[in-house]
Amino acid sequence: MHRFLLLSLVTLIIIPAEAASPARKGTSVVPVPVQKAMGELDAAAIRAHTRFLSSDLLEGRGPGTRGDALATQYIASQFEALGLQPNGDDGSYFQKVSLLGLTFDATRSALTLARGDAGSPPLKYLEQFVGGNQTQQETTTLDSEVIFVGHGVVAPEYGWDDYKGIDPRGKTLVMLVNDPPANEKEPDLFKGRTRTYYGRWTYKFEIGAAKGAEAVILIHTDDAAGYGWQVVRNSWSNENSYTKLKDGETALRFAGWVTEEVASGLFQGAGLDLHAMTRAAGSRDFRPVSLGYRMKGTVASRIRPFNTSNVVARLEGSDAKLRDEAILYTAHHDHLGVGAPNAKGDTIYNGAIDNASGSALLIELARVWAATTPTPKRSIVFAAVAAEEQGLLGSRWYGKNPTVPAGKIALGLNFDAIYMIGRVSDITMIGVERTSFNATAERVTKALGLTIVPDQSPEQGYYYRSDHFSLAKAGVPAFSVDQGHHVLGKPESWGKDKTDDYRKNDYHQPSDEIAPSWDWSSAVQMGELGFWLGWEAANAIDMPNWLAGEEFRAARDRSQGK
User: 20-36, pLDDT tens digit by residue?
Assistant: First the structure.
């Protein structure tokens, strides 16, 4: 493990406990530029940026919409006003991301799960299923055998194959949404409670397409997905975006979800029990089961080619050799746009917490960094990325087309959804423990009176659900900076109750709007931590790396020509 030492001596000061902010305890040694920067972070500025980005004027910032364009122009204007260098295409602040928007056309589509010659009523869109055609054609037809393939996982490192004995080409594959479970004999199977990428719904569609399946149907349960059916429904009821298929690239004619009730009825019709088959799928001995149904019907889509943008700016580093390397701050600027109304008739999915809050902090961090002296050794890059809600598409684009070579990005720090509940005593940075930067992160958080706590819901696979994952796949040591649940001055469960309430009632809902009760010191605290972490990496002798044996280490080595 590398030790992260500053390239040159930096003046240090001692902060007495009584002079420290509420987030700092005891006596802490803080570099002077970091202390000054932390004092400059402005809660009112973060609130103002969040208010504009989540206003009805921007109509939910759906990718490729007027509101999306307003958001990107606003962020670029802020970067320009700060004097940051444009770091996008052709000397601009914009890195164009070309996508195809597909909207399921319920008026021209009909899907049935038919058994034998018996007729079957079409499935009810949004109520019983969601999904769409990924072939990027206006219409496609389906007529294929329905097979239950358990978790749909092929993992040679675990000796696991859910497809043994079948040819999945041209079939409809029904899958569970999670990893195969650990057991007493193998408590670390698929990392135990920690969800791996094999358990993500994105993997399920990817492996189905790679296997040549006609369709993939995922069985939704609240526990397996980590959220209720309303989240799936809202996420799929609007336009869904994709990068354009390349010649010869395979895609599913239908990729979607069904409710647990529909799945239970499907298995019951086949003389099986869903829960019993779920248990059976947890064994290596599981073999795919034909359910005796055929998936039939037509999937029609409205297709809209469009461009959106990552907004990218750069603060040039001061060291002649290290300025070609960079620290990368990211936050996604998009949300869900305009969609189905809630009980109050509101159709605008404002996305104030998710993720106007993170974008606002990104702008404020850019302002503070631009005024920091001395300038850091490495460059600092700020990227407000697009289409995260569509499957991390903007950050994936950046990961494949980085404005700084991936092997020269020292560290990626991502901000996605800041809960305005006040200052906390604990923090999560899922993935930092896999990197050589972990010791530095522990030192900084301790100095700020914060405790790094492990992933509180490892079964949800949060590491694979935000933009840092796209950077990790390119080899960049990257993670999100998130609050914990222990709010200073509040009862033990207060913070968790607040965040749980948000995820149940406001996440991906029109009600994700600014409230007068929000405590904006949350965002300031995330900014303090994010700045100091960035400062350490920007001035360290060696760049961080993934630890030996970690899943992204090979990509890091390739990016650095090793």
Answer: 333 343 345 899 999 99
Angle in degrees, CA 559, 561, 562, rounded to 5: 110
What are residue 410's phi and psi, to 5 degrees?
Answer: -70, -40
Contacts of 272 (CB under 8 A, 6+ apart): 289, 291
Give the Cα separation of 442 and 412 in Å (integer). 17
430: left (phi over 0), alpha (psi -120 to 50) or beta: beta
Please check whether the domain covering 102-303 is classified as CATH 3.50.30.30: yes
The pTM assigned to this predicted structure is 0.86
508 with 500: CB under 8 angstroms?
Answer: no
CATH of domain 24-83+316-425+443-452+512-546: 3.40.630.10
Q: Which residues are within 8 A (CB) of 152 and not within 5 positions of it... i.e. 6 or more apart?
A: 162, 163, 173, 175, 176, 204, 207, 208, 216
Start-end of CATH 3.40.630.10 domains in the chain: 24-83+316-425+443-452+512-546
Cα 169 to chain centroid, rounded: 30
SS3 per residue for 283-319: CCCCCCEEEEEEEEEEEEEEEEEEEEEEEEEEECCCC
Q: Positive or negative, the Cα torsion across 462, 464, 470, 473? A: positive
Give the β-pairing of 409-414 and 326-332. parallel
- CATH 3.50.30.30 location in the chain: 102-303
Mean pLDDT on 124-131 = 96
